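STRUCTURE REQUEST FORM
Protein name: Flagellar protein FliL
Source organism: Alicyclobacillus ferrooxydans
Requested output: structure tokens
Priority: standard
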Amino acid sequence: MRKLVIYISSGVLLVAVLALGGAYWYHTKKAPHKPAPLTLAELSKLQVNLPQVMTNTRDGHLVQATFTIQTLNQQTYKDVTAGQAQILDIINTSIHGENGSEFLSQHGLENFKLLVLGQIRKLLPVKDEISQIDVVNIIEQ
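Status: completed
Returned output:
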């Protein structure tokens, strides 16, 4: 009977120690470190300005446009810069797949940018290191 009391007491003590240790760990653990947001000056250094593209749409309209890709770190900047030929191919192919009227509305332009952004992200080793693609200028005829 005495051994049973010792075993039960030891078990209760062990559970209490584990509970207190877990509570202490939970309350003192540090939140994951979030990097500070980039400043405008830092962001501008991570922009890749693409050369102007001029190509036909699916229905024969002409689109002339210039794009900027906003990367979030130096490695992605280098990857995007090195892959400009593939990115320009993605943009040209995407324009060829659209009707000219798509580029006349804000909604159509936003959908086009999302399409191109998704295709560019597939090229990169890390998918979410591009925050956006901007249309610097666009002419549709």
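Reviewer notes: The longest strand covers residues 130-140. The CA atoms of residues 39 and 45 lie 10 Å apart.
Form closed.
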